[in-house]
Amino acid sequence: MKPNANERKPVSEIYYPSERILKDAHIKDYDKLYKESIADPVGFWEREAENLDWFKRWDIGLDDSNKPFYQWFAGGKINIIHNAIDRHLKNWRRNKLALIWEGEPGDIRTYSYFELNRGVCKFANVLKSMGVKKGDIVTIYMPQIPELAISMLACAKIGAVHSVVYGGFSVEALAERIQDAHSRVLVTADGGWRRGKIKDLKGIVNEAIKRSPTIEVCITVKRTGHDVYMENDRDFWYHDLMGLPIASPVCDTEVMDAEDILFILYTSGTTGRPKGVVHTHGGYAVYTATTHKYVFDIKDEDRWWCAADPGWITGHSYIIYGPLINASTIIMYEGAPNHPYPSRWWNMIEKYGVTILYTSPTAIRGLMRFGDQWAKRHDLSCLRLLGSVGEPLNPEAWRWYYNVIGKAACPIMDTWWQTETGGFVITPLPVTPLKPGSVFKPFLGNQIAVVDENGKEVPKGEEGFLVIKTPWPGMARTIHRDPDRYVELYWKKFEKNGWYKTGDSARIDEDGYIWVIARVDEVIKVSGYRLGTAEIESALVSHPSVAEAAAIALPHEVKGNAIHAYVILRSGITGNKELVDILKEHVAHEMGSIARPEAIEFVDSLPKTRSGKIMRRVIKARALGIDEGDLTTLDE
Ligand code: WTA
Q: What does the pLDDT read at residue 613?
């Protein structure tokens, strides 16, 4: 079957949960609970917060005295690690598997909660010995290996802030993020495995450090064992440090304020540099744990596989924090889904008895392309629930996932959320009737609307801006070192209503089901990865032959969207096929291969507004051969 990410036909079919799902569900009646939750959202979240261990109870559930800088569980003392690890060591779960990890070459490592704690304590002590203190920002740039999780957790344990940079990013993207965070310490690996090849992370790191003067210490995990350059007094091997007496397996968990920063995660925004989205210990812990537990009906016997990369928010919230707080057994896999054969994932599901798979539409469409036989060769009857995130899941891919992978027995949780929301905001529950392609309705406690420019709700079935009307505990608190930008980006547009602007467009149907359409800003989702047109354009312009560039997203069968770039060359330079390849490679080198443009076209001019802003909307309309819309601000 040929996948088609851009199928937009309305569907009328509805899928109901089976008896088995209904019987086991934590939440049986969404409508009733939803009504109750929004009558008193703060009360709802306070009751959920009581499921966590606090060193000191909060004074105020929601402090909204300084909008939009909301504070949740203000006055409370907590550490997310105490909830994700320490408390599980006091009962039988100390022996439960926390992590089952498989490398792409087939090597396997497992960690019980007891062992995970030892690793985290040891590395926390190593970080301390390198002078890392509460509040310091440690940058982590790694492949999907257990040490990535251990490094994140070790930072949080001692109150340091982690900034994880996705291992698929490259030199400039990494350097820019290190510089914005002013990190002194960087944790990395020599490399990782991807499609049978080594990705040379340390080579990228060495180049990025040259552009990042703040780095004093770089700790490198030996993963691939290939030759790498290590600089005296700056570079240390992880395994050497973990073997020293300073790496004691005992370490106190720092007592944090609920609103202390847990991590920053850079994400692409409307303009300029990527922004460091800030999340905190208390509200984020409550939000990720609660959403994970209810949306995926988490039970002790589950084996949970979120097949994202920890370098993105999905990995932070639903590989690491939410699942560990719920004492889940987590599956993690290093490599490509189709390496060395297209059933690698299905084989892993059977082998480890995975009960819940949470992945992206791009992965689903990519695997669907190989045909049903690859999945049919494996016994996938262990699966109970499926999930999707990152971009719209088109009905055709939905049905394939449901029928071929889930054998028509596993409801699909198509969860809508963002780096900034910390966790699921709009999502089905296992018991709710599903429409393929719709993300259902708001999660408990949340209120959303689809509105026009002026904040007026649009009629049923019409497209408008998706907004969140009320605060929630997992919300981003600010942009690192740039609170004004936080206000500007998310709260300015619907300031008089006090609503959060998501940057997405959506419509709501006659049954109240929400259908997310696309981003309405300069963010591009490629294969579910979030990139900014500005970053791609500045990578292009950093090449000596490029004078100006514009990047847009055009529909793509598997990736959802693909990057198309329009380039004005410097005078005297002629564009040809060779230069197209050179520029594509240049973007991949600077940004990472996920940002490599699908196509580059040389042009003499770009449509601009009179104030000089590139009108990407017009370029896109022309490329698609559709109406260009309002052109009154066009310069020529
Ligand atoms: C898109 C990823 C449709 C959306 C967790 C959002 C989705 C952006 C869905 C955030 C979904 C995420 N259906 N679109 N289920 N989930 N998106 O920050 O455009 O990487 O604004 O967070 O992904 O991307 P981010």
A: 86
634 has a pLDDT exceeding 60 = yes
Residue 12's pLDDT band (cuts 50, 70, 90): confident
The amino acid present at 169, given as its one-letter code, is: F
Q: What is the rounded distance in angstroms from the CA atom of residue 616 to the CA atom of residue 310?
A: 31
First to last CA, the chain: 45
* 302 Cβ neighbours under 8 A, 6+ residues apart: 296, 328, 329, 355, 356, 384
What is the distance in A from the centroid of ligand 1 to the CA of 212? 31
What is the rounded distance in angstroms from the CA atom of residue 220 to the CA atom of residue 190? 6
The DSSP bridge pattern shows strands 275-280 and 303-306 to be unpaired
Ligand 1 centre and the CA of 363: distance in Å? 15
Give the C-alpha separation, 333 to 405, whole Å.
19
Q: What does each C-alpha distance from 280 to 18, 156, 237 come to in angstroms?
A: 38, 10, 30
pTM: 0.96
Q: Which of 168, 188, 111, 123 is CA-nearest to residue 150?
A: 123
From the CA of 503, how far away is ligand 1's center (Å)?
10
* Distances 424 to 388, 399, 465 between C-alpha atoms, Å: 11, 22, 18
The residues lining ligand 1, judged by C-beta closer than 6 Å to any ligand atom, are 267, 312-314, 389-392, 414-419, 439, 502-504, 516, 519, 525, 530
DSSP secondary structure code for residue 551 in this structure:
E
Going from the Cα of 459 to the center of ligand 1, the distance in angstroms, rounded, reads 24
Label each residue of 254-283 as H, E or C: CCEECCCEEEEEEECCCCCCCEEEEEEHHH
Q: What is the pLDDT of residues 195-249, one digit of tens each?
A: 999 999 999 999 999 999 999 999 999 999 999 999 999 999 999 999 999 999 9
* pLDDT tens per residue across span 487-540: 999 999 999 999 999 999 999 999 999 999 999 988 999 999 999 999 999 999
> What is the C-alpha to C-alpha distance for residues 534 and 524, in angstroms, rounded to an integer?
10
Sign of CA dihedral 438, 411, 353, 111: positive
Length of the chain: 636
**Residue whose pair of structure tokens reads 């959403």 in the numeric block:** 291
Strand order in the sheet with 599-602: 546-556, 560-569, 599-602
Neighbours of 379 (CB within 10 A): 12
Q: In whole angstroms, what is the distance from residue 429 CA to residue 25 CA?
A: 9
Atom from ligand 1 closest to the CA of residue 426: 15
